[in-house]
Amino acid sequence: MKNINVEQYIDSYLKKVSTTQMIIIPLIFLLLSLFILGWSFVSTGTPVELGVEFTGGTIVSVESQLSFEEVQQQFTSQFPDTPPISARDAGGGWVMLQFASMDEAAQMKLNKYLTSNYGSEISLRQMSAEYGQDLQLSAVKAVIYAFLGMAVLVFIIFRSAVPSGAVVLSAFSDIVIAATLMNLFGIALSLGTVAALLMLIGYSIDSDILLTTRLLKRRGKLDDKIKGAMKTGLTMTTTTLAAIFILFLVSTFAQYISSFSRIDIISDISVVLLLGLATDLMNTWMLNTGILKWHLGREVPIGKKKRGRRK
Amino acid sequence: MRDEEVEKGLGRDPRILLMGGAIIISLILLLLPAIFPDMGFGGLRYGLDLDGGSWLQLRPEGAMAQIDTDIGDIITHEYSSFLNTTVTVTGTTDTSVSFEVGTLVTAKQIESLGYGQAAVSVGMGGGSAITLQVDKNHVISRYLENSYKTEVVLSEDRDGLWYEIRKQTSAEELEDILGDVGGSLILYKDGVSQATLVKTKEILEDKLNLFGLSDVKPIIVEREYILIDLAGIDIETALDLAATPGKFEIRIRTEGNESIHAVYGDDIQTVGIHEAHNGVWGVPFTLTQQGAELLKEAAIETNAVNDPLNHEVIMYLDNNIIFSAPLNDRLADNLKIMPVQDMSASFGTDSGSKESAKQLESHLRAGALPVNVEVIGSGQVPASLGSQFKELTAIAGLLAIIMVSFMIYLRYRRREIMLPMIITSISEVVMILGFASAVKWQLDLPAIAGIIVVIGTGIDHLVIITDEVLYEGKLPPTKVYLSRISRAFGIIFAAAATTIVAMICLFWMGFGALKLFALTTIIGVLIGVLIARPAYARIIKEVLKEEQE
């Protein structure tokens, strides 16, 4: 019964939404996102907030009976020159503190204090600001090269400008909108989230390639082909979304059920993938589908013209 | 009867055989240590973030420069400030510089700056005429050594000859120093040569071994950094061991066991390679000008210059005696009148002395790495947190599989489709883990994230195959089936290729932590596309055939 429901939804979606709407709505989101990222770039110097790996600094987690505010207070009075810039409850009795980048001597002092007061049961991560800058550059390069590599590959696979362009545009839009959502939700760019953005390139392309292959290479009515592709594609994305949602829940909220601590890197990766894949639903089934519909619908008159000329 | 045929068909299919074989090998690899714990092979290794421990990322400080300068100018500049008189260069050849100075000097005095061997004659107007046998590169590096008070070595690569300054500096600072002698800087880059990087890594490894950490292997990343993972060691100890240079000190004996301080390790400018000089094994090293002055003062104060045998020179590393010997007579005589920078710690002529010399060299170097290292990143994960992470990711993985099974069931409403899909997915995980244990990868959190991604795309691809095959809701005739399957694989290969391209970029850009993630994803995608998905296509066909018949 449920299967039929899905098909009915797809049917009514394809009937109600015009090709123009399919293309325009995602483009509006894309432009809006570009605007937000640009504005953030102008006002803060980076399109997305940068995590400690990229800015340099120190993240410390200690096990403490005290509340995170009290622990922050304790460290602020102990290290007035390099106070923690933020603190939060990391679950399972752990408190996470973040410090700005400091010099080696200050770092040594902090380490000594930590080991003598909290023993060796502390979690610590420190990156120098200088290395963070190198890393920023590498991250930007990695995303750009990965994207270009993907784009070249797509053009080789389809050997046709408009369908390939549509796939690449949709992947571009996925990344841009995902980055914007990161910006709006205050998710910092960390090594984990850069990885997630790169994964998004691979992930989001799957459904676009499915759609394009089905529409270009299969015979039959265009709407039927779109319907078939949508059914498969939606299954793909929703299963993935479901799995990643679980990952997000467990890595982020396990702390409230039992004494587990949160796993930041997995939490970061899963939340960006969730946002990106949700965006991808729109970009694949509106933007990419819309462009292909317009493109394939346009081809018929061109074919007629050719025949006309031959006469 | 029919069932038997089906079984046979499946059992003989190379794709099924391949996957079956891969799974069995993987399982053996994974379970081996549980049965034979002492074999030291197979099983999973976990990264620091799962097993606990600390890590350091170090950058050797230094600079590489290509330089053009006139050695005559260097000689003029150096000797006029050293002798406090006028210096006039009268001739320069490839191997010598002749110059005149305004005072009477000895060859020893001239040679004490370390530029070369000198021949001195009386010059006009009460001064001296000197001919110095030199090597151009040596003069330049010696000048830089004296200016920076640090070791400067030559290194050659395909871009030409570089002077490696083993100290943090900047292009501006170097230009200033060269400006004093009219020289110019052609090329400059921060960092040290590959050879020095490797040497630094090896010394760190030796040093860690010295403290009983024989399984710690520092690695070089991005041709610039040294990464050290220390399982089970806390960050404080790690920093002490790896990032803090050993404390080196030279003292001179006064009476009995008493001694006075002469020079600290930071006044050791260079350490040479142990060598036999006239058959006597020794380690040459040089002191800074300040160090040479200090040694001279200490030698005079203790009377070692007149009675060397009773006032030995003793070297300490971290308060352990690593060398002790009297000054030789010639050095003692020289120290009476002037500081001496070039020294050699000598042993005997036998092979035991060679070993001692070699050991002293590595001790001198362990005390001072070829270059200072800057800690640019460090971290620690306590073992308790790591084991929590392990549990939590296992729980997340299991829940994710259950969730995916549920979604697939919702969509197809058929257990015969859901089960092969889920089993194929789990097999992929087993094969990736098997591969990881075969090549001794350390599984860390990013790698686990990579595996999850692969499983995600894996399920996507299985859905594509299933939907192509099931287009009309039932299994199509073989010919149509084959064309459908090949189209499905067209989509899958294209999708896999894009993921691999993206991950190769990530791997190639080489962020330390994400390299493993990229590699895991690439291997996982390959295993999925080449082994698991073809086998699934075969299984699903068989399942549907069975169902229809």
Strand and helix layout:
The complex is a heterodimer of chains A (311) and B (549).
Chain A: H1 2-16, H2 19-44, H3 52-55, E1 57-63, H4 68-78, E2 84-91, E3 94-99, H5 104-118, E4 122-127, H6 129-158, H7 161-185, H8 191-217, H9 222-257, H10 264-310
Helix pairs in contact in A: 1-9, 2-7, 2-10, 6-7, 6-8, 7-8, 7-10, 8-9, 8-10, 9-10
Chain B: H1 2-12, H2 14-35, E1 45-46, H3 48-51, E2 53-60, E3 63-68, H4 71-83, E4 87-92, E5 96-101, H5 107-111, E6 117-122, E7 128-133, H6 136-148, E8 152-157, E9 160-165, H7 171-179, E10 184-190, H8 194-210, E11 219-221, E12 225-231, H9 235-243, E13 248-253, E14 259-264, E15 268-271, E16 275-277, E17 280-287, H10 289-301, E18 313-317, E19 320-325, H11 329-337, E20 342-346, H12 351-367, E21 373-381, H13 383-412, H14 415-438, E22 442-443, H15 445-469, H16 478-509, H17 512-548
Parallel strand pairs in B: 1-22
Antiparallel strand pairs in B: 2-12, 2-21, 3-9, 3-10, 4-5, 5-7, 6-7, 8-9, 11-12, 13-14, 13-18, 15-17, 16-17, 17-20, 18-19
